[in-house]
Amino acid sequence: NQGIFIGMPGELHIPDARITPADADYRSKLDDALDVAIALNSTQEHTLGQLHRLAGRIAPEAGEGPRVDRARAQYTVLETRLDSLIQQRGVVSLTLSAIDGTDLVVPLADVVRLVPSNELGTIGRSGVYLSRLWEFLTAEPRESNTAGGVMPAIFGTVLMVLLMSIAVVPVGVMAAVYLNDYARQGFLVQTIRLAVNNLAGVPSIVYGIFGLGFFIYFVGGGLDQLFFSDSLPTPTFGTGGILWASLTLALLTMPVVVVATTEGLQSVSQTTRMAALALGATRWQMIRQVVLPNAMPGILTGLILAISRAAGEVAPLMITGVVKLAPSLALDLDAPYLHLDRKFMHLGFHIYDLGFQSPNVEAALPMLFSTALLLIIVVLMLNLVAILLRNALRKRFKQAAF
Length: 402
Description:
MetI-like fold; mainly alpha; 64% helix; elongated; 4-stranded antiparallel beta sheet; two-stranded antiparallel ribbon; 6 strands
């Protein structure tokens, strides 16, 4: 890995010919060869993805049978195709000349971008910048994460926050409702409230250790023993994954949701509660149809605070499933479509990796600052959705205090 090389295109080496920039058909030949190289890269990436998906079907723990035999035959065919694609990468090459006079011959398939800089106007340059922004948002990382895009990290961050929200909101709301409306107020309830408030100050790494011991080793190991014993000793859920990371962050943000929901419940006046009971509603009907709708802005306030904290947490994720480079996304077209046992990438960990683990920190600086800005934007967008929903509910229920 020599990093990024920027140079002027020179001779184009194709089978049985060398085309120089002075040739009349140089530009058209180069464009045609580049189109072929792009198609070759796309085919190679698709083939690698198919091989990765088949690898689990032909593993030793998969056993024997017609399905496994078909998968092995398909795997062999794809391996042969991949070898052929790799050999084709070196058929066409291009000489690049750096500003210091250094020449480098590279396979055309390794060329990331060709830009006629001296021929571009304002619109053309804007198009180049927009194309690079699109690549940053939609492409996968390359060059040890110092180039390419951050799409897997964006996807992992958003999916983890969504799973965390699905887990923390129902449990946090039920806990707040029980403590506020069902539990007999006394020393025990006050102690629980104090403990919940203090949990908000526990260092996040402690939650990560708890998630490792309880979710991964205890719950995940138990699931493997019950449902995936054929795969042991290779763990399925008994190792880090996006499910356990999401549940760990749900625990981390639970105190925020409970406190905000409690304040929202307490904002509903006692007169409103008594009026609902006087009309014949049961306690549960009163809570479900009167209290919770009026407290919804407060609940969403807790969700906003939870998202803000969870999206930027890194320490618990390093223990519970985040990786530098995920071979596949947790959501794809292969059944069961949502793979909660898979490891994932995260924007926060991506920033840490670029800043402290990159083999070339100077080359990683542009990607580092771009990813940091993107994480801020993602958090703001997630919060904006919750804020808009909260404001809509605030207009509907004027009695809410938030």
